[in-house]
Amino acid sequence: MRSDEDNNDNNNNHRKGIVQILTTRVQKPPPQEMDLEQKLMCHNNNHYAYDDESYVGDFGNVDEVAYMALEKERKRRRMPMICRLGYILLFHVVVFKFLSLASEKYGTSKDDDALKSYIRTLSDPNKFENNNTNNATAFLSPQSQAWEYMMTKQQHQSKYYDTSTFTQKDKALIRQDYVLAVLYYSLNGQHWDRNDRWLSDSTTDVCGWYTSYHHNDICNEDGLILVLDLSNNGILGDENHEILQLPIELGHLSEHLKDLDLSRNSIMGTIPTELGLLTNLRRLALYENDFTGSIPTELGVLSDTLETLELNSNHLAGTIPNEMAILTNLVTLLVNDNANLVGTMPLCNFLPTPNINLQHLWADCVDTHDEETELVCDSSCCRCCFKASNKNCEIHHSNH
């Protein structure tokens, strides 16, 4: 009997020892800090260990009770850490979003800076001097207005221009959009007869902008324009404002532009020498405008491509450049109705053999003895000669 009693005492002591260990490992919340819900939870969970009793509950397995109690304590201690990590992550997300919005509204990204830097290489840097002023009434050059348009398009069209790679195609698209924007602002585009979709937020693709050319092949497969035709579109120049003259930036379209037609408008100023950079140009039509000055010698650079040059009905003066003689692919040259052109016709006097491609050469040259004109053009060369006071062709010659 004594032996059985000793065994029972040992089991009870062992049981109390384990419970005591549990009570030291599991921290009981101070009673004063427990709300009603916590007290009910502790009451219903029979495996919770109290300092003042060795009650294990109905489980009977001390190891299971110990395991469950320790797991509960680990979860209790783990939750605050998870919450803290969640708050930290949420804070960083909010800060990042705020900085992104602030950058879009008040600042620029590296891509925007790269775009700005590249655009500024396309024009005289002095043309952008008013972009850095806060004076809303300051005069903005066409280049400055085009610069603003490009930056607005970049920000509102989800980084429309890819400046991360800056491939040749990327640069060509940027140059094209900028040049066309400069042209629009230089020639008072808001007052054209037709300016449908030009610089529109809804149509960013320039191939969808209005053109007088009624064919589908305006652009190539890369979205670069082949034909720029704004003929007879009510473009009115003003001799008192430089911004209404033909911009020199057109020369940046050299890689793809084949046909430039701005005829039958009222554009003033001189013909930009930079048009000589358009080495793929096949047709240049500037007739029936108000251009003054001389014919640029740089047009002679277009000897490999230029087939049609229409400069008639302007106010051009001086001599026909000798460089015109090397335009051996020229089929049509119209310089009539420019009363102040003088000298001789290089295509007639400087070629060792006649230009077999030339079919239409019109000039104010009735004959070498006519007192009304000083432009000499041999009758065997000029296909149609005019008197300065008469716009009707008086002499027709057959082709060679």
Produce a short descriptive summary.
The chain is α/β, with parallel strands linked by helices and 400 residues long.
If you had to describe this structure to a student in words, what would you say it looks like?
The longest helix has 45 residues, at 62-106. Strand 11 (384-387) and strand 12 form a beta hairpin. The chain is built from seven helices and twelve strands. Helix 1 runs parallel beside helix 3 (62-106). The protein has a domain at 2-103. It is an alpha/beta fold and 400 residues long. The strands form two sheets. An eight-stranded mixed beta sheet has the order 1-2-3-5-7-9-11-12, with no helix packed on it. Strands 4-6-8-10 form a four-stranded parallel beta sheet.
Tag the structure with descriptive keywords.
eight-stranded mixed sheet, about 400 residues, alpha/beta
